[in-house]
Specification:
- With about 400 residues, the chain is an alpha/beta fold.
- It folds into three domains: about 260 residues, Metallo-dependent phosphatases (Purple Acid Phosphatase, chain A, domain 2), CATH 3.60.21; about 60 residues; about 55 residues, no CATH class.
- Helix content is about 30%, strand content about 20%.
- It has eleven helices and 17 strands.
- The strands form four sheets. The chain has a six-stranded mixed sheet. It has a six-stranded mixed sheet with strand order 7-8-9-10-12-11, with helices on one face. Strands 15-16-17 form a three-stranded parallel sheet.
- Strand 7 and strand 8 form a beta hairpin.
- It is elongated, with a radius of gyration of 28 Å.
- It starts with a strand and ends with a helix.
- Keywords: DNA recombination, DNA replication, Endonuclease, Exonuclease, Hydrolase, Nuclease.
């Protein structure tokens, strides 16, 4: 059986205030085309369909269109809710939608009830484990502890119990939305730490043939049968090295992975992280190929340059993030700010503060005069208030 594994669509999300709805629509076009071109038998969507619990209308319309197109393709789709989704909202109408071959698994109570698919070699039981918030499902599952590992273990016990009652040779697939140990996170995933522990061991999924994971945004293979598809688009600059893909997995007659390959997703615009003094970034010919990229620039100038964003966007018009990280040497070591306050006048403290935050550049005569005038105004105002109180 040929499976197409994807996750973390985050419909409705933007990238540093740049809307991604067109890029997300292009991905869904690509998804449907891949289903047809590669004769996919089932689509697996491992959570975070939306970016937030109450998504914008345009994102809902995009999702609705995708469901209709997948249903028209006649290919079963199994989809779970992630930690960004509202499980209740995503699951509305699941029973009716299931008749069209789109199986929404958002209720934790249904983790042990699979979608049963069939091919020439027999049945494949597909279990959907939506994101399980430990505090909400612990009692329902009878978990000994309120942690991700405990509730996922309890959910997998239900999966294995159901599978044990099925005909011998029944193959099994699990969809789950979780942080599994060994996975590499990025800056764009929402923290799901509970009690200081977020990761669960991959061994928690023992006993099934393929585990389609969602939550982490980089495509990863934890074991031959446990994989993250990653998000189809980059949602932070920490993902600039990611190759955004979906997994195309052939599940053999015996439940082994006969083949697994990555299908590249459309890239709306490449990401680039550049670093150095501003003048160097504006002139270095080695950066020519980043001029059409979304750019995060880290400036290392000792003194913050004037109008850095305006100057950067002349060469890199799609600069979205500007970071200041002045280069320091051992010779730059200075006493702490608190130490420098001792025995200083208000004027000296203000000037020292400006020097401190500007990486060593002292105020010029005009700035000193402005600081003096501001301090004088404050003293005059305070004195007037004291006289008012004394009356």
């Amino acid at each position: 059986m040929r499976l197409l594994h994807t996750s973390d669509w985050h419909l409705g999300r933007s990238f540093h205030r740049v809307g991604l709805l067109e890029a997300q629509a292009a991905f869904l076009d690509h998804l449907v085309a891949t289903v047809r071109e590669h004769r996919v038998d089932a689509v697996l969507v491992a959570g975070d369909v939306y970016d937030r619990a109450v998504p914008p209308l345009a994102a809902v319309e995009l999702f609705d269109d995708a469901l209709h197109r997948l249903a028209e393709a006649g290919v079963p789709t199994v989809m779970i809710s992630g930690n960004h989704d509202s499980a209740r909202r995503l699951g509305v109408g699941a029973g009716l939608i299931g008749r069209a071959g789109i199986h929404l698994r958002t209720d934790p109570a249904g983790v042990g009830t699979p979608v049963v698919l069939t091919d020439a070699h027999g049945d494949v039981a597909v279990y959907g484990l939506p994101y399980l918030e430990p505090a909400l499902v612990r009692e329902r599952f009878g978990a000994a502890q309120a942690g991700h590992e405990a509730v996922l273990a309890a959910a997998m016990d239900r999966v294995r119990a159901d599978l044990a009652g099925r005909p011998p040779g029944t193959r099994s697939v699990v969809l789950a939305h979780a942080f599994v140990a060994g996975g590499e996170p990025s800056d764009s995933e929402r923290d799901i730490t509970v009690g200081g522990v977020a990761a669960v061991p991959a061994g928690i999924f023992d006993g099934v043939d393929y585990v389609a994971l969602g939550h982490l945004h980089g495509s990863q293979t934890l074991t031959e049968r446990v994989r993250y598809s990653g998000s189809p688009l980059a949602y932070s600059f920490s993902e600039w090295r990611h190759r955004k893909t979906m997994w195309l997995v052939d599940l053999g007659p015996d439940g082994r992975i006969a083949a697994a390959g990555r299908i590249d997703c459309p890239v709306p615009r490449t990401l680039a992280r550049i670093r150095g003094p501003l003048d160097q970034l504006l002139t270095d010919p080695a950066l020519d190929h980043h001029e059409d990229s979304w750019v995060e620039a880290t400036l290392t100038d000792a003194v913050r340059p004037a109008e850095p964003m305006a100057r950067l966007t002349k060469r890199f018009p799609h600069t979205l993030s500007l970071v200041f990280d002045p280069d320091r040497t051992d010779d730059d070591a200075r006493p702490s700010y608190a130490e420098r306050l001792r025995g200083r006048t208000d004027q000296q403290i203000a000037e020292d503060f400006v020097t401190h935050v500007r990486g060593g550049a002292a105020p010029d005569p005009h700035e000193r005069a402005a600081l003096h005038d501001a301090l004088t105004d404050v003293r005059t105002d305070m004195a007037a208030r004291e006289r008012e109180v004394a009356r």
